[in-house]
Amino acid sequence: MDKPTVSVVILGQKYKINCPKDHEAALLEAADYLNDQMNEIKHSSKAASIEKIAVLAALNITHDMLSNRKYAQANEQQLRSLTSQLDDALAHQADSNNE
């Protein structure tokens, strides 16, 4: 069972990546995002080596991902609290209607 090979370009370098079938578009999107982040760092800092640019991009992307995860978790907790309050209010209303 062969995995398709997808060609991506990051900082002018071409890479061939094995990719599960039906995930090619997601891989290309990720590669484009990484390329954009690395180009932004390359043009806005004095980082000369590709390795340093890659590490800085990885740190930025990881920071964004972790921040988004914390934000999503906080929203999930708030949604659970609101759902619980709504359930309590509906139960109270149902009890009042049965009296």
From TrEMBL:
<protein>
    <recommendedName>
        <fullName>Cell division protein ZapA</fullName>
    </recommendedName>
</protein>
<keyword id="KW-0132">Cell division</keyword>
<keyword id="KW-0963">Cytoplasm</keyword>
<keyword id="KW-0175">Coiled coil</keyword>
<comment type="function">
    <text>Activator of cell division through the inhibition of FtsZ GTPase activity, therefore promoting FtsZ assembly into bundles of protofilaments necessary for the formation of the division Z ring. It is recruited early at mid-cell but it is not essential for cell division.</text>
</comment>
<dbReference type="InterPro" id="IPR042233">
    <property type="entry name" value="Cell_div_ZapA_N"/>
</dbReference>
<dbReference type="InterPro" id="IPR036192">
    <property type="entry name" value="Cell_div_ZapA-like_sf"/>
</dbReference>
<dbReference type="InterPro" id="IPR007838">
    <property type="entry name" value="Cell_div_ZapA-like"/>
</dbReference>
<comment type="similarity">
    <text>Belongs to the ZapA family. Type 1 subfamily.</text>
</comment>
<dbReference type="Pfam" id="PF05164">
    <property type="entry name" value="ZapA"/>
</dbReference>
<keyword id="KW-0131">Cell cycle</keyword>
<comment type="subunit">
    <text>Homodimer. Interacts with FtsZ.</text>
</comment>
<keyword id="KW-0717">Septation</keyword>
<dbReference type="GO" id="GO:0051301">
    <property type="term" value="P:cell division"/>
</dbReference>
